[in-house]
Amino acid sequence: PAPRSAAENPVVASLTPFYKPEADLPPVAAPAGQGLVLQFNGASWVEVIGRDGQRLAYGLMPAGTMREFAPGSVAKASLGNADAVDVRMNGEATDIAAFRRANVARFTVSSQGSLAPAGG
Description:
The chain contains no helices and ten strands. It starts with 35 loop residues before the first strand and ends with a strand. The strands form two sheets. Strands 2, 3, 5, 8, 9 and 10 form a six-stranded antiparallel β-sheet that branches. The chain is mainly β.
């Protein structure tokens, strides 16, 4: 038989996740109430990226979950079902409404702890 062209080769798909499950990610220690604290009041997906570009949190968080990140460790965050997430920065409740579109909030965190809209 004649050799196949690249367009004729079969496509192989996988249902294997391409991300690390939340349980495999190392915990990020934070002094009590300092840094970024996310309290999930309903199921929500989350992605938190550290200053070094590594994922600090990624996956679906069930209601009742709380994640704390040390001051200065977070570069940006994305929160799905953002209405179900309470955000605190350095012990202060933080309104993320300005960073929300279609119930997804995306924001960056400065080294001083202020939040700003995520670009892109």
